[in-house]
Amino acid sequence: MEPNSAKLPIWEKIGYGLGDAASNIFFQTVNMFLLFYYTDVFGLNAKVAGTLFILARFWDALIDPLVGALADRTRSRWGSYRPYLLWMALPFGLIGYATFANPALSDTAKIAYAYVTYFLLMTAYAAINVPYSALMGVMTPSSKERTSLSSYRFVGAFGGQLLIALGVIPLVRILGHGDKALGFKVTMAIFSLLAVLLFVATFLMTKERIKPHHEKPDFRKDIGSLLKNKPWVIMVVAALLTLSGAAVRWAVTPHFFKYYGGYNDAAMHLFGREIFLDHTSLFLSVGSLSFLLGIFFTPWLVHRFGKKNSLMVLTLANAAVLLAFFFVPRGDFWTMVWVNALASLLAGPTPALVWAIYTDVADYGEWHFGRRTTGLAFAAAMFAQKFGMSIGGGLAGWLLGIYGFQADAIQSEQTLMGLRVLFSILPGVFAVANGIVLIWYPLSDAMVRKIEEELAERRAGASPDPA
Predict the structure, then answer these.
(1) Where are the bilayer-spanning segments (predicted)?
(2) Which end of the chain has fewer surrounding CB within 10 Å, N or C?
(3) How far apart are CA 5 and CA 130, in angstroms?
């Protein structure tokens, strides 16, 4: 039975979830639409955009461990991680807006502007999202409650994803009155304000309960303990593979439906009536709803099969469906929707499982090596995720260029085949590799419970740092 101090009220879990809704306003906009924005609105060459994706996301990944180490050493009346939600909310929103502001510039100046704003956006994202992620590890000492908290987090995350998937393209069209550049600018101004408000709400509605203990800061020792932490190493490799595949697919989704599907600004039949509805938005929205539905199976899966087994099997099943997508006929839009919905349903519980496992891995590091580095553990894991995103985003841009992609033009058969590969085969291969790597993850649920109990005994006899 969980001690009362370990239980979190529902309103606090909801408040924590709002933070990932805020993060995903820009995370998903960047993943789903930034490459399209750069090539088809801002006018960048696909290879130039691909190089920018690699460099900016590598920078983002590089600074994550530094932000995590800084957050671990932060002491304030609000705790170590919560303050960053307040301090960075406004800069995050302003820089996010500037990324899509589309000023009138020369071709060379556009490249420079894209580099500056994208690098700043990744810096701001790291500065607020690394502490936000680590916050889950200090809100409660209970692994069971953290799994629940992770589920709330990803309801918020995929709620934000659904908002972006459903809203961006229609709002760009409506608010821009046919001018995509204006549409993106106004749409992102609205979403930027919403992200700021949601992060402030998370700051106000959450609390840190696990206090840091007296311990001499030593970044080298902290890094050393992480590299010796086998469960963490396994999860880092899995994260690298997961986000590499996902980033490729996200980046080329608008291109896939515009050029391969031929659905750009086309009317469709829905419930027997011909209406104007953007196919890309509908595809992404149904996928996001399926993700949300999948999240609600997380507690049952953990109870029935355990975290590791659930994550591994779901990952491999999702890989099989992604590979099968390659064989869906070109003109069969609704089959594409339902196959993707199945893939999304299978993937839905996996982020909640992954982030709950990260808290277990952080506990393992404290239990085995005697050093609690929650922020650094999360940040270094996010380094792998974002490095994977840099690989995937860069591959998408570069391979589009290699396949001969030209914006707003009729594409060659080679380019169309390339879009199919980027949208299904390559993500599927990354997912298969990810599922295989998870076989070596060593922490069973029984071991996690033992670690939790022994850490509770240690903490009961330790003196916390003054806040």
Answers:
(1) 21-38, 84-105, 111-132, 152-176, 182-206, 232-252, 282-302, 309-327, 333-358, 378-401, 421-441
(2) N
(3) 25
- 11-30 pLDDT, tens digit per residue, is 999 999 999 999 999 888 98
Query: In the structure encoding, which two tokens stand for residue 331, read together?
Result: 């003109």
Identify the segments of the chain with pLDDT beneath 70.
1-5, 212-219, 263-277, 372-375, 459, 461-467
Q: What are phi and psi of 23, to 5 degrees?
A: -60, -40
Residue ranges per structural domain of the chain: 11-209+217-458
Model pLDDT for residues 136-193, shown as the tens digit of each residue: 888 988 878 888 888 898 889 878 888 888 888 889 988 998 899 999 999 999 999 9
Instruction: State how far the alpha carbon of 124 is from the alpha carbons of 64, 131, 229, in Å.
Output: 11, 12, 28
In angstroms, the CA 17 to CA 465 distance is 28
Cβ atoms of 347 and 294 closer than 8 Å:
yes
The CA distance from 376 to 64, in Å, is 8
- The number of beta carbons lying within 10 Å of the beta carbon of residue 167 is 18
Distance between CA atoms of residues 272 and 274, nearest Å: 7
Find out whether 20 and 153 touch, Cβ atoms under 8 Å.
yes
Task: Specify the DSSP element, H or E, that contains 458.
Answer: helix 445-460
Q: What angle do CA 147, 159, 355 make, to 5 degrees?
A: 25
**In this predicted structure, what is the pLDDT of residue 467?**
40
Separation CA 356–CA 302 (nearest Å): 11
Q: Looking at the structure, give the CATH architecture of the domain made up of residues 11-209+217-458.
A: Up-down Bundle (1.20)
Contact 81, 137 (CB under 8 A): no
Of 195, 211, 197, 196, nearest to 78 (Cα)?
211
Please give the pLDDT value at position 27.
85
Q: How many CA atoms lie within 13 A of 251 on its CB side?
A: 31
pLDDT for residue 53: 85
Main-chain phi, psi angles of 267, to 5 degrees: -75, 150
* Strand partners of residue 268: 275
Contact 182, 175 (CB under 8 A): yes
Q: Is 132 exposed, middle or buried (0-12, 13-18, 19+ CB in 10 A)?
A: buried
